[in-house]
Amino acid sequence: MKVKHIFCDLDGTLLQEYCKLNSDDLTSIKEAEKEGIKVSIATGRLDYEIKKINNRVKINGYRISQNGAVVHNHDNQLIHMKSLTEEEIKQIVTKLSHLKVLVFFESRDAYYCIEKLKIIEDFEKSQDLLTYIERPNILNELHELEISSISIWAEKHENKNVQKSLEKMLPEHLTTYISSDYTLDITNVENSKGNAIRRICKHDDLDINEIAVIGDSYNDISMFNVTKHSYVIDKASNSVRKHANHTVKSVSEAIKHILENN
User: What is the mean pLDDT of residues 79-106?
Assistant: First the structure.
C-alpha cells in the first residue's frame, strides 16, 4: 500500500533552533509532492506560525496545531477545534500556581500571558515566528476568548517533574504533552496529533497505512502509534525513539526512504 500523505512535526524535525529550515528537507518535500504525496504539518505551535512556515515552504496539506486541538485544511477552513472550558482553565491555573513555571494561554491564533516578563520578550526577539500578548486580567476575560491549550515554561527537563505532578492532580479528561526540553502543553485528552491524523484519514478516506509520520518528541508518540510508516529523528530520546519503526537523521532521509519504497 503506497504512502499518499506525510505528516511532519516542526521543532526538532523540520524546524531547527526555532526558525531554521534545511534546504535538503525542503527539496525532498517538493519531490514528494511531485509524486502526488500530500504533505501536512503537525505541531504543538499555533496555526499562524504554521502559516508563516508555509510562506517559505508552500506545503499543500493540512495544518494540525496545538497538538491536534486545532486543525485547518489547505483552504483555511477550520475542520476541528476542541477548547477548554473556563472551569477547566481555572482548575489548571490553580494546580500550576504551586509550581515554579511560566504559564501561557493559547487560543486559535494567539499566545497570551498574564505578565510579559523580560525572559518572554527576549525569547520573542530570538526568533520571528511568535508573539505573546499581555493580558493581566485574562482569568476574568475567559468568556471573551476560546482557549484550547495552556502551556508552561520550566527549567530545562523540569517539565517532566511538572508533568508527573499534574498527572496526579488533573482529571482524566485533561492530558499533558512534553513538546521540548522546557515546555509542557495541557489540553483536552481528545486532542492529540494521532487523533487529528485519524480524523483527516476518515475525512479523506485514507487507510492508516497510506500515511507516514515524522517527528522527534513526546508529543509525536501519538502519531507514531497510528501507522507503521513512522519515522523518528535520531536526536530524539530513547523513550521517544522506541515508538517509531524507523530512525532517520532528517526529514529528507525519511522522505527518500518513503519514495524508494512506494
Answer: 93
CB 38 within 8 A of CB 164: no
pTM for this prediction: 0.93
Per-residue pLDDT at 18 exceeds 80 = no
Q: Which three cell numbers stand for residue 202?
A: 476518515
> What is the grid cell recorded at 60?
499543500
Pairwise CA distance, residues 209 & 200, whole Å: 13
* CA nearest to 67, candidates 86, 55, 84, 92: 84
- What class, spelled out in words, does domain 5-81+191-260 have in CATH? alpha beta
**DSSP H or E run through 201:** helix 193-204
User: What is the grid cell recorded at 29?
Assistant: 518535500
Q: CATH number for the 86-188 domain, one of 3.30.300.20, 2.102.10.10, 3.30.1240.10, 3.40.50.920?
A: 3.30.1240.10
Long-range contacts of 201-208 (CB under 8 A, 24+ apart): 201/5, 203/79, 204/5, 206/4, 206/5, 207/1
Segment 172-199, tens digit of pLDDT: 999 999 888 888 999 999 999 999 999 9
Taking the C-alpha atoms of residue 120 and residue 41, their distance in angstroms, rounded to an integer, is 25
Q: At residue 99, what are phi and psi to the nearest 5 degrees? A: -115, 155
